[in-house]
Amino acid sequence: MEHFRREVREWLSANLVGEFAALRGLGGPGREHEAFEGRLRWDRHLAAHGWTALSWPGGRTIDEQVVFHEEYARADAPARVNVVGEGLLGPTLCAFGTPEQQRRFLPKIRAVDELWCQGYSEPGAGSDLASVSTRAELVNGRWVVTGQKIWTSLAHVADWCFVLARTEPGSQRHHGLSYLLVPMDQPGVEVRPIRQLTGTSEFNEVFFDGAVTAEENVVGRPGEGWKIAMATLGFERGVAMLGHQVAFRRELDQLIAQAPDDPILQDRLTRAWLDLHVMRSHTLRTLGAEPGPEASVLKLFWSGWHKRLGELAMDVLGPASMLDGNPHQATFLFSRAETIYGGSDEVQREIIAHRVLGLPR
Question: Which residues pair with 135 in a beta bridge?
Fold first, then answer.
C-alpha cells in the first residue's frame, strides 16, 4: 500500500503545476464558485489519467481509495466538480441501472463530460423525502415531470438531474415514487440560484413545468424510487469522507497555530482534535459495510463537528473573524447548511432512534 501511496503522491506533485497549481485549496462547500472552469479542466485531467470512478466496480480497493483521498487532501488539490455524478449517481447506476443506462451514462460521468445534480428535497418536504410531491406521468413514451426541488447543489451547471418523483397518483409516503434521470437543458426546466449567508449561490431552486425524459430513463422499476434513493444516500457517506476529514484536520491545525494561550480555548481545541480522531475511527470501521444507521451516526458526527469548529474559530480569532475574506468565517456561516443537507440532524436522530435503539415512532 505504501507503493500506491507514493504513486498517488508523486502523480499529484507532478500534475498540480502550471495552471493547476493556482487551483490548490479552491472550491468545496460554500466555495463552489471558485475557479469552476479551471477545476472542471482539472477533473477532466484526472479522468484522462485514470483517477476518477475509483469506487466503481473494477476500480480500486477500499484501502487504495482511502489512500487516494488522504493524499488528495494532503496535496491541497482543488475540490472536485463531479462529486454528485461520480460519487452518487455512478455507483447507483452500477448497482441498479440497466445495461443500456450504464453504457449511456457511466462513460460520460467517468470522463466528466456530463455533470449531474440531485433532485430530492422540496420546499414542503425538506429531508422528509417520503413527502415529495413532484409528480411524473408517462405520456406517449415519455415521463412528463411537474414540481419543484430546492437546495439543489450545482443545478446551475448540471447537464442532468436524478429526480425523485411521485409516479403513482394517490400514493403516499415512500410508496409510488420513481427515480428518474432528467436532462436539464430543455424548456420545462428553470433554475433559480439561492443567495446564501456566505454571499455565494451554489444551492438552487429547480422548477419542472412539463419537463420530459425518455421512458427508459427510470432507474429500477417505476415505484421503486424509495429503495434506489436510499441506496444513493448510502453511497454519499462512504470512503470520500476520509478525504474531508483530512481537510478538517488541516483547518483545525491552522486554527491551533493561531490560537492564543487561553486555557478554555485550548481545552476546546483539544476536544475538537480528539473528536476528529473518533470520527476517523468510526469511518474506517464502517467502510465497505452495507448502508445502514451507521451512516446516520457519521453524518451527525461530522456535520456537528464542523459546525462547532466554525464557532470555535470565531472565538479564537476574535474581532478579526468578522473581516470579509476570512476562510474561517465562511466555515462558520456555511457549516449551518451541513447540518441540513444530506439528511438533517433531526432525521438522522430519528433513524438512529428507530433502527438502532428500537424506540417507538
Answer: 146, 166
